[in-house]
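Troubleshooting log. The previous run stalled partway through. Resubmitting the same two chains, unchanged.
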Amino acid sequence: MNLLKIIYDGIVKQNPVFVLVLGMCPTLGTTSSAITGMSMGIATMFVLMCSNTSISAIKSLVPSQVRIPAYIIVIASFVTVLQMVMQAWLPSLNDLLGIFIPLIVVNCIILGRAEMFASKHNPIESLCDGIGIGLGFTIALTLLGSVREILGAGTIFGARIYPEEYGSLIFILAPGAFIALGFLIAIYNRITPTNKP
Amino acid sequence: MLTYLSIIITAIFVNNIVFAQFLGICSFIGVSKKLDSAFGMGMAVTFVMTIATLVTWLVQQYLLVPFGLGYLQTIAFILVIAILVQMLEIIMKKISPSLYAALGVFLPLITTNCAVLGVAIIVAQKEMPLLQGVVYAIATALGFTLALCLMAGIREQLELTDVPRPMRGVPIALVVAGLLAMAFMGFSGISV
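Second attempt completed without errors. Output:
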């Protein structure tokens, strides 16, 4: 299989947020601004790349009855590594993302890709799938974070677009997350021809 | 007594796990199509969350803290939850086949329900005493059940309406959830 095609599929055709609708908790919980959304996306991408590659490498050693617990342990180890790195070097970002960093373990995208892709392909292809799906996730989170930040606070990545008084706070708060994501998925469904229901 | 009442009201209404804390959204969107299954899932989550919080609290207090293994929290907790769910499934099958028939299908889904791990981590982070933690877990799970049942009721009606094509399915469900979350924001002034 063409490696670039795997990456492209991960970003567009199998976008984890817009098409597969997986990993909703961090998608909604960490996108109150573009920068937090992007950081969460990159953190998830790191875990996904590492876990996909190593699970694909050990897939023939693991008996199929205990594969799910084994995958979860692999994923949890990488999440712990990420947690330690962030606590050491990016403490402010770590506080901002809070509980969603340890919760990467139960992000259905990661276990889903391990089960659907990494357990059937070789490590290089799995790494590419991790990059593709991770990028797709990062793009979706950055997009949602930008939309919410622009509508809610009038800024994007902290740069002001219009005065703060005109922003509607609801988009920064919880309800805005659901509504903005609902409309983004609807727009995605409308513009991707292959995906019409 | 008043503190417990305050914990319960806060966890169910003010800080609802779905609408305010964004945990357990995957099962919230996935299992909220029918009222019966929504209620079953809610009960299964309540069951697992209560026991999981109890066990992870003990693991945290008597294993991780005394031996200085705090950094293994994530791995230890997810392992405990995965084993617990598996064990509950086996025990339930043996002891109460009727309960298993009602809740069994939801059990495997719960391992990856971030609400269960989320609550366990929150209880450990805030260093709640055991009873307080368990009460918090039960109340949070009831809040989850409430959210799931409300959503399922609305979605059953939504089936009959003519929704624009790109909005069908998940998008409209998310918008409805947004409106529900807005309604729940009305509780945010309450403090008992």
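Takeaways: Chain B has one domain: 23-185. Chain B has a mean pLDDT of 87.
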